[in-house]
Amino acid sequence: MGLCVGLFGALSARAQDLPQLNLPRVSITAGFYQIDAQVAQTPEQREVGLMFRQTMPQHEGMIFVFDEPAMQCFWMKNTHLPLSAAFIADNGEIVNIEDMKPYSTNSHCSARAVRFVLEMQQGWFAKKNLKSGFKLSAPIFQK
Hints:
By secondary structure, the protein is α+β, with helices and mostly antiparallel strands. The chain has 3 helices and 8 strands; from the N terminus they run αββαββββββα. The N and C termini lie far apart (56 Å).
């Protein structure tokens, strides 16, 4: 019995160190650009986020959806990829963008209360000249 419990514990620990690759997806339009974003909407999905991902295509990201607007802060524990986080208002407007270093526990926060945070590869927003005030469009954003 102890062996089974130990084996189950080892399997659970390993499963927790795996990236989330099968979350629902949403298409987000940023001007001429299309983003294929995984949707992290449960507390567990948001907690894992993009941790443990080794690679991610340029056009992919992850959007974190919260129930209510609030000050959102993110860090990069167990995250291998350098990321940029866009903090987004209900209507799709980018409030602010923060670049985040891999494995850092430094907090990167929204400039005001938001319900959405979109993580992309670091520099993606800058390369596309997308800044605070730019409006993204997707079915999840309110008009």
